[in-house]
Task: inverse folding
């Protein structure tokens, strides 16, 4: 029995100009600002005590989780090719790796 050639090959890709990407960028920006300011705050003031240690580490790990999720989101974000939106997952992955590794 042959496979039907009309099979649907559905894949989920974020629109780079969509609202979800803008909101996600805001979340990642807030995570960056948290890490930027809190590191300075914690070195300047001795606010880490035994009572607040769990809170600080849980917030730090939450921000790390947001960064990891951002990597996954970028692997599913579309790209523009000749002013047409592309959604080939292999090309998205190669473009992301090229950007991260700064290979041109």
Result:
């Amino acid at each position: 029995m042959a496979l039907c050639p009309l099979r649907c090959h559905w894949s989920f890709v974020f629109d780079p100009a969509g609202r979800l990407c803008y909101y996600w960028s805001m979340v990642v920006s807030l995570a960056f600002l948290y890490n930027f300011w809190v590191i300075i705050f914690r070195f300047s003031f001795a606010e880490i005590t035994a009572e607040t240690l769990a809170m600080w580490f849980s917030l730090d790990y939450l921000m790390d989780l947001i960064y990891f999720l951002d990597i996954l989101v970028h692997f599913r974000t579309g790209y523009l090719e000749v002013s047409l939106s592309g959604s080939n997952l292999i090309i998205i992955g190669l473009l992301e790796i090229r950007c991260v590794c700064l290979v041109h």
Remarks:
- The first helix runs from residue 19 to 44.
- The chain has one domain: 19-101.
- The helical segments are 19-44, 53-75, 89-101.
- The radius of gyration is 20 Å.
